[in-house]
Amino acid sequence: MRVPAPGWQDGGVTQVWTVVVPVKRLDAAKSRLRGALPGRPHEALALALAVDTVEAVRACSVVAEVLVVTDDQAVAAATGAAGARVVPDRPAAGLNPAFRYGAAVAGDGWVAGLTADLPALRPVELAAALSAARSGPTNRRYVPDAPGTGTVLLAAPPGMPLDPRFGGNSAAAHAASGALPLLGDWPSLRRDVDTAADLAAATRLGLGAHTAPLCGTTTPTASRPV
Ligand SMILES: Nc1nc2c(ncn2[C@@H]2O[C@H](COP(=O)(O)OP(=O)(O)OP(=O)(O)O)[C@@H](O)[C@H]2O)c(=O)[nH]1
Ligand SMILES: C=C(OP(=O)(O)O)C(=O)O
């Protein structure tokens, strides 16, 4: 059981969040995206999505640590170089166990789980969502994906298990488990990329520096509003 960290409710502590980001092995990841970029290796696209996600989390003003849960060596190397702490995928039993393991490693404090397929993510939108999760009721909070059926972010206050229910209609599953929705105007946070159409939508928002060149766009991270 996690317990409140010092200053957890005082509003004066800004970098309070540990964000857990599980990433599947690249040879198995993002299977619905296979073939979306003809002539580009699928693993390169899956890696770029994850690294852009992690870099945006690292740049988020309220995040203390990014914890990547993966058994993929290329993901571990690239996200570690981007400033993440990397732990193995334990018990190697799928996404929700990986989230639970990451939350356990994170220990006491504010913990959020985030999917690794948010290549347009802007740090300011993540900061706004995480700050909203610290205000009001002390329930777990979740941010639905753009269609509203899935989940991109699940947050828990100190002392409360993350209790992830990702996969399928996870927005409904998180609501049924007592989590409350956060519905701010955060298009880049809600834009997860599962299909070629999702990648086109993310491209319109502005891709991160790793995914953009693979997609033939020139939108560097530095030129995006953070
Ligand atoms: N560590 C870890 N991460 C996972 C696992 N399964 C999914 N993920 C990650 O969870 C996030 C959301 O999952 P999905 O959107 O379903 O991604 P996916 O399973 O790679 O994609 P599909 O093969 O198209 O279903 C992605 O960023 C994945 O990398 C897992 O078993 N272990
Ligand atoms: C795992 C999830 O993502 P997706 O539906 O995008 O695979 C989810 O939304 O819970």
What is the domain total for the residues?
1
CATH topology: Spore Coat Polysaccharide Biosynthesis Protein SpsA, Chain A
Bound molecules: guanosine-5'-triphosphate, phosphoenolpyruvate
* CATH homology superfamily: Spore Coat Polysaccharide Biosynthesis Protein SpsA, Chain A
Number of strands: 7
CATH architectural name: Alpha-Beta Complex
Number of helices: 8
- Alpha-carbon distance between the two ends: 34 Å
Q: Which class best fits the helix and strand makeup?
A: alpha/beta
In helices, the fraction of residues equals 25-40%
**Beta strand %:** 5-15%
* Strand line-up across the major sheet: 3-2-1-4-6-5-7
Shape type: globular
CATH class: Alpha Beta
What would you say this structure looks like, in words?
- By secondary structure, the protein is of the alpha/beta class.
- The chain has helices at 42-58, 73-81, 95-106, 123-133, 170-176, 187-190, 196-205, 211-214; strands at 17-22, 63-69, 85-87, 110-114, 141-144, 151-156, 180-181.
- The protein has a single domain (17-215), classed as Alpha-Beta Complex (Spore Coat Polysaccharide Biosynthesis Protein SpsA, Chain A).
- It is built from eight helices and seven strands.
- It is globular, with a radius of gyration of 16 Å.
- The N and C termini lie far apart (34 Å).
- The chain binds guanosine-5'-triphosphate (GTP) and phosphoenolpyruvate.
- The site of guanosine-5'-triphosphate has 17 residues, from helix 3.
